[in-house]
Amino acid sequence: QEKPRSHDEL
Amino acid sequence: MNIFRLAGDMTHLFSVLVLLLKIHTIKSCAGISLKTQELYAIVFTTRYLDLFTTYISLYNTIMKLIFLGSSISIVWYMRHHKVVRRSYDKDQDTFRHYLLMLPCLLLALLINEKFTFLEVMWAFSLYLEAVAILPQLVLLQRTRNIDNLTGQYVLLLGAYRALYVLNWIYRYFTEENYVHWITWVSGIVQTLLYADFFYYYFQSWKNNVKLQLPA
Q1: Does B60 contact A10 at a Cβ distance shorter than 8 Å?
Q2: B103: how many CB neighbours lie within 10 A of its CB?
Q3: A10 touches B: beta carbon within 8 Å
Q4: Where does the chain cross the membrane (chain B) (predicted)?
């Protein structure tokens, strides 16, 4: 399972 | 979501609201750089392409739509609104902003987290955001009288960047595998660009005089 990346930031 | 991230997003939101307030109620964009606003519209358009591919949260989607919509509408107002566009300092806002885009694109092609279209666009948006404030800072320096709303707009933008740096530090120590060099380095560069402005802003605030930047 890949961790959520920096793309959860705006 | 940690407090720094939330506070960062909120100051970002407030900066946009301050700008829209100036444009909608005072019908003026004096002191605002169209070049910077155009770069922001490009930054958000290229960064939020993942709206179509990845769902993160309702909060995330709504904020993305707000930043996309507001940046595009600000550019529209400054270019086309019959009253607002007359207050635009066209002759002072001469930064050749398109020259910033090519180096950012080349850098994104070379340095990205993965060589895919979305990832290259994502990296491009980060590099471009880091330098997008430059035309605005140059314009501020040329404008003799900086009005309160314009000063507050830039201050809020700078605060948003500084809070994001705190958010990364916090996440680095509290989350496993949270390492994002591209975001961090471009974010820190961007925050440093505000350091000079912060200095003069707080000086003028402390001495209770109108903000003026040295020529």
Answers
A1: yes
A2: 12
A3: yes
A4: 55-77, 98-115, 121-140, 152-170, 182-202
Distances (CA, A) of B25 to B1, B28, B154, B168, B171: 34, 8, 19, 36, 39
Is the ipTM beyond the 0.90 threshold? no
Q: What distances in angstroms separate CA B183 from CA B125, B153, B169, B210, one per listed residue?
A: 10, 23, 12, 35
The string of pLDDT tens digits covering residues B81-129 is 999 999 999 999 999 999 999 999 999 999 999 999 999 999 999 999 9
Residue B105: CB partners within 8 Å, gap ≥ 6? B124
Q: Do residues B11 and B163 lie in contact, with contact meaning Cβ atoms separated by under 8 Å?
A: yes
Give the chain A residue nearest B51 (alpha carbons).
Answer: A7
Q: What is the mean pLDDT of chain B?
A: 94
How far apart (Å, rounded) are the C-alpha atoms in residues B135 and B95? 5
